[in-house]
Hints:
Elements: E1 2-6, E2 9-14, H1 27-40, E3 48-51, H2 58-66, E4 71-75, E5 80-83, E6 86-89, E7 104-106, E8 111-113, E9 116-124, E10 130-135, H3 142-146, H4 150-159, H5 174-194, E11 203-206
Parallel strand pairs: 3-4, 3-11
Antiparallel strand pairs: 1-2, 1-11, 4-10, 5-6, 5-8, 7-9, 8-9, 9-10
Amino acid sequence: MLSFVYNDISIPLHWVHLDNNGGNSSSKHRINLMQWFITNCPNIAIDYVLADREFPAEEFIKWLCENKIPFIFRSKSSVLVIDGDKKIKISRLFPHLKHYQNKTKADSKIRRIYNNRLYLTVRENQANERVYFISNNNQDNSADIYRKRWTIEAMFAKFKTKGLKLESTHLMKSNRVISLFMFMAIAYCYTCKIGELSTFHFYFQFGYSLL
């Protein structure tokens, strides 16, 4: 699913049903979603594409960089980074993170990650767990911007257990799932509109809703 953040609420924009036994989407799927948006909404600028740890992939990141589309992705701690002439895990960088302001290090050094030249931000959360963000833009607030991605998780929760009960239908056929999802999206957007939300901030994001 591709959604956008509308006044801190995630709004569904475009989606496809993947019949691949619960596996992740491919870079081709993700690129196709973005190309759909670029073709159909040519006058809307993208602030950032946001996505969780399962979405970064060499081909997808390369396409975003080549098309000058800014993104912030969360990265797995096991990903290898080229640091000088060595390959090391991201988790081995910045061992003394607590010494940095807000336990956050926004590195200004370009590193080769997923075989692309990217910037890295590391933050330690309240549970003292490290969270890693990669971007093709150098900014100090990648972690703060990335917080907006959580809105898609809140939207999925409302589609399922906290509202529209999508999983209770037990639908399996692709055409029926897509049709039902369309009506759910309309109902969801209508309720958001009732709230008289007034401003747009375009942060595009990818997410899965597992049936």
